[in-house]
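Data card: per-record layout.
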Amino acid sequence: MPFTAANHYDFTGDDITGTLDAHRSAGVWAAQLVLSGQTLESTDVTRSDLGFEVRTVVENLSDGNRTHLLVVLPRVTIDPDDGQVSGRSAGSTPAVTFTSYAVLYTVHGGSNEVHGAVEAYDVRLLSGTASLVR
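The structure for this 134-residue chain is written out next.
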C-alpha cells in the first residue's frame, strides 16, 4: 500500500506556533513561526535524519549574544485512502497527529569572552497535525 508524504504541518506548544508547507509546484518547504507573539522572519528549512529542521535567529544583541530557535518536526506519511485517520472530517484531507520539540538557544558572545557555559538551551514540547493538501 503506497503512502504519501504529508505536505502541510500545523504545530503549537509552549508559546510557539507555526506552519510548515511544501510549495505545490516547486516542492520547496516554507515555514512561518511565531514565538511569544512575535512573527519570526528568515526561516531556513532542511531535511535531516531528525526529520524537518526549521531554524531562525530570534535576536541578535550588540554584546554578541544571539538567540536562535530550532524546531524539529517528524516526517509523516499518510494513507490518502484511509478514512479512519485522526483529524479527518468530511471533505478534508487525512491528518496525523504528532509530538515533537523545539529548542530556543542562546549563544553568549565569543567562546573566549564567557566564563562557564557558552550556550544555554530551553527545550519546549510541541504537538500538531500533518496532512496532505492537494
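Known properties of this structure: The longest strand covers residues 95-107. The chain has a mean pLDDT of 86.

See the next section for split statistics.
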